[in-house]
Amino acid sequence: xxxxxxxxxxxxxxxxxxxxxxxxxxxxxxxxxxxxxxxxxxxxxxxxxxxxxxxxxxxxxxxxxxxxxxxxxxxxxxxxxxxxxxxxxxxxxxxxxxxxxxxxxxxxxxxxxxxxxxxxxxxxxxxxxxxxxxxxxxxxxxxxxxxxxxxxxxxxxxxxxxxxxxxxxxxxxxxxxxxxxxxxxxxxxxxxxxxxxxxxxxxxxxxxxxxxxxxxxxxxxxxxxxxxxxxxxxxxxxxxxxxxxxxxxxxxxxxxxxxxxxxxxxxxxxxxxxxxxxxxxxxxxxxxxxxxxxxxxxxxxxxxxxxxxxxxxxxxxxxxxxxxxxxxxxxxxxxxxxxxxx
Length: 342
Fold this sequence. Notes:
Layout: E1 2-4, E2 11-14, E3 19-24, H1 32-45, E4 50-55, H2 57-61, H3 71-85, E5 93-96, H4 102-111, H5 116-120, H6 123-131, H7 140-143, H8 145-154, E6 160-163, H9 168-185, E7 193-196, H10 224-232, H11 253-261, H12 264-275, H13 281-307, H14 312-338
Parallel strand pairs: 3-4, 4-5, 6-7
Antiparallel strand pairs: 1-2
Helix pairs in contact: 3-13, 4-8, 4-14, 8-9, 10-13, 11-13
C-alpha cells in the first residue's frame, strides 16, 4: 500500500494495484444466480485488480441471529464453490469477516459519526423488513449493517466496489459515511467508487428471482437428473398458453439462462423463434440443457477434486485471514492516529 503523508493527518490514498472488495453472506452451496450475478465477474476481475473477497458471516447474523450454528458449514460450502468455479486463491485474498476484528472496530468508529436518519432511509432496510416479516428485525445490527458494509470496504482502502447498476445507490451511503468521517478527521479513508458491472437477470424455476429461500434455485453442481427435471418444469412466459402462441422471452427465466449458458447465435435464435412461435418452450428448454448440463458437470468434477483436499479451504482462509488482517490493521492505525486514540 502506498501511504501519502499529510501535515495534518496520515492519509491512505492509493495502492500500487487498484483494489476491490466484495463479499457474500454464507448460505451454503452456490446457485446459478450467485454465479451469473457476482462470482463470474469476480473471476474476471481477479486478473486486473488486487481482490479481497470475503464470507460476510457477521452480516448473516443481522437476519439469522437466532441460530448461527449453520454459518460455519455454509461458509465452507460457499468458499469451496468459489474455488471450484474458478476463483483462484493464488490470485485473490479469500477470508472470513469475523476473523478480521478490525472490521468491528472500524464499524464502531464509523457508527459514531453516522446519522441515524441516513440508516432509516436505506431502501433495503424497509424492503427486507417487509419481505422477512416472520423475523424480528428491530435490532441495532440490522439497522447498522450499511455501516458495517462501509467498514468492510474502507478497511482495505478499496478504490472500487463491483456493483450492478441497481446497487449503485447502496454504495452511495458508504461514500457519504467516508466523506463525513474524513470531514472530521482529515483524508484518512478512501472514498470507494462503484465499478459498475453487468449483472444478468437470473430467474428461478417459479419465475421469481432465484433464491434458496424461495426454493427455486439450481445449484452450480446440481445433479444432471435433478437439473433436467427442474429446467423442464420451469415457468416460462405465463401468457403463452398454446404452442402456436408467440412468446415474450423478456419475461422468461429460460431465456435469461440461455444468455449465460448458450452461444450468442443460439440466444439470437431463441429470441427470434420464441417471438414468432417458431419453437415451443419444450424445445427451448432442451436447447438450454445442451449448454447448461456440461457446465454443471464441470463444476461437480471440480468440487470432487476439492473434496480430495479437505484441508484446502481451511488453509486458504487462514492465509487470507492473515493478509486481510495485516492490511486492515494498517488502515486502523491511521484511523486511530487521526482520531487521537493512540
